Amino acid sequence: MIYEALSCVTEDINNNLKRKLQINEDKMILSGIVNQDGSIAIQGENKMLVTLVNVEKETARASVSNTGAAVFNATSAAVSINLYVLFSAYFTGNNYAQALRFLSYTVAFFQSKSTFTAQNTPMLDSGISKLSFELESPGADRMNNMWATLGARYMPSVLYKVRMLTFDDSIIKEYRPAVAGTSGETLPAR
Fold first, then answer.
1. In whole angstroms, how far apart are CA 69 and each of 66, 123, 131, 165?
2. Contact in structure between 155 and 99 (CB atoms under 8 Å)
3. Which residues form the Pvc16 N-terminal domain (predicted)?
4. Can you name the residues that pair with 49 across neighbouring β-strands?
5. What are the residue boundaries of the structural domains of the chain, listed by start?
6. Interhelix angle for 2-21 vs 96-112, to 10°?
7. Using an 8 Å Cβ cutoff, are 57 and 80 in contact?
8. Strand pairing partners for 1?
């Protein structure tokens, strides 16, 4: 469900950027920043990266009582999590101004659409009722530690907390790995 949530948001931002900037290229890509061997994980340059940097358990789970008030319950068969998602500008040195522009576009997008539901995002997975994006202000020390942990050099970036995905065993479905095509591209399994 994490993949479904982040790929949907990435696609939505790309569609918005294509419409507003009149471009054909996907500028936002869901990707790690570095591979396990320390090499750069991104194919190409001049992209905005969407990277999951942390997952945390939501300790208070809200449910609605008969009166319509929110009741928080810490025990349930399901677990709810929050995601920390980093949007970073991977642009070459000559395009630093473009990096800052796309970082600004990202913040502006979430200012206009901070909540994703089936009503405003039809492509949202049916197992996700709502995603809420909150801008985080991690501070210089925490940001420095995060980039060091990621094993990458700092890039202009913004961090969002995404509330909240709820998991139970109903999300487990048959897994079909992708099949590599003859030209090396990955094709979805049928």
1. 8, 29, 20, 21
2. yes
3. 40-179
4. 29, 88
5. 2-168
6. 110
7. yes
8. none
